[in-house]
Each structure stands twice: as C-alpha cells, then as structure tokens.
Write a structure and sequence with these properties.
By secondary structure, this protein is α/β, with parallel strands linked by helices. It is 50% helix and 12% strand. The chain has ten helices and five strands; from the N terminus they run E-H-E-H-E-H-E-H-E-H-H-H-H-H-H. A five-stranded parallel β-sheet has the order 2-1-3-4-5, with helices on both faces. Strand 4, helix 4 and strand 5 form a beta-alpha-beta unit. Helix 2 packs parallel to helix 3, helix 7 crosses helix 9 and helix 9 crosses helix 10. The radius of gyration is 18 Å and the shape is globular.
Length: 218
C-alpha cells in the first residue's frame, strides 16, 4: 500500500543498456505511476550523463543500471553527481544489491534496488523522489553526496574520455587491439592512440601496469 503524502508528480529518466530491461522498466514506471513523466530512456551511459547534466533535459530522478557496457553505472552516477545535486540517482541491478551497494554510495547515488521486484523498484523510486534514501549502505542526499564528490580529488577514471573508458574496459576484459577496434567500429591505429593517451593519464609504464591501475581506480 502506498504511503500517504508522498509526492507522485515528478520526472524520471532511465538508462539501461539492455533494450528489453529498458522497455520493461519504462512500462512499469508508466503503468504504476501515471502522474510521473518519463523524460527519456536511453541505452548508453554517456548519453545519460549528457542529458542529465543539461537543465532542459534534467529529470528529478534517474534510474541507472550498474552494469552497462559503454560506461559503468558507477561512472554515470559519479559524473552526474560531480556536476549537480539536482538529480536524485537510484542505482539498479539484476544481481545482488550487495555487489554494487558500496559502489553506488561512493558514486553519489541515493539508493540501490534490484530489478527483479517491480513493487520494490516503485517503492524505491518514490522514496528517492521524495528526498529519502533507499537500501543499506549509508546512502546520502544528493546535496551531501555532491559536496563529498566535489570536495574529493577526481579519480583516474574522471580524467578519461568516454571512448577511452570503453577501450580500457575491453582491454581489461582481455581483448586484443584488433578485437577492440572491431567491437567499437574504429581503426586499430585509433585504439592504440587511445591507449597511449590513457597510459599517460594514468602514469603507467606499460599495458600491464595500465590495466592494474585501471582495475584499482574507482
């Protein structure tokens, strides 16, 4: 049963790189909360960051899948939270929430919820939209997490471009230059230029050290 006095008129956006999941969650929100306006639903984290940090496309709440291919959900949250405290961030996962809870908190989210329970997802969405936090993990308000992240030094990943993040994620998975180039539809020379740029930004001497520093960075 929905709690009384909860605000149910607000704007929502969704980012999830699984098309079926994106469609399902969009439909769930639309049918469960007809007063809510869904501003946009996208599959790429980089696109979500761009839209969520522009005043004319900024939602009240952004639902963020934590395991996306082009940009991890933690990076999406962190980039948005560093830029603004005006968007409440609710992390989502198909896996156990304990796996991503700490990442979500450190990245400035106001809560985390599993995708498997639609009723719980709606409860979490309403809680976050009304200024509360959701889930275990010491989650903070948007204002507090914005201050914390802005006051901290940028992580190594904050220094990289979206394409460099994509290249490094694939390199860390064990892909060779040719495979990375094919997957991203870019040239092998371009891949190597990105890797050289990343090596300089991370202060690494070689690829092994570069991957190790990448894996350790938030």
């Amino acid at each position: 049963m929905r709690q009384p006095n909860l605000r149910t008129t607000f704007t929502v956006a969704i980012v999830d790189n699984d098309p079926m999941s994106l469609k399902s969650i969009t439909s769930l929100v639309a049918s469960s909360l007809p007063q809510v306006r869904i501003l946009w639903a996208v599959e790429q984290g980089s696109q979500a960051v761009c839209l969520a940090t522009k005043s004319d496309s900024q939602p009240d709440v952004l639902l963020v899948d934590m395991s996306m291919e082009d940009m991890p959900g933690s990076m999406v949250c962190r980039r948005i939270r560093r830029a603004t405290d005006q968007v409440s961030l609710l992390a989502m996962t198909s896996f156990s929430v304990q796996i991503y809870a700490d990442q979500a908190w450190r990245s400035g989210a106001q809560g985390i919820v599993g995708k498997g329970d639609g009723d719980e997802l709606i409860r979490a969405l309403l809680a976050v939209a009304n200024g509360s936090t959701y889930g275990d993990g010491g989650f903070e308000s948007g204002a507090l997490s914005h201050f914390r992240i802005q006051s901290s030094r940028p992580t190594k990943k904050d220094l990289l471009s979206d394409r460099e993040i994509q290249v490094m994620d694939l390199l860390a998975e064990g892909l060779e230059d040719d495979e990375i180039a094919e997957k991203l539809n870019i040239g092998r020379t371009t891949v190597r230029k990105h890797l050289q740029s990343v090596k300089q930004k991370l202060g690494a001497r070689n690829r092994i050290q570069m991957v190790l520093r990448w894996m350790k960075s938030e």
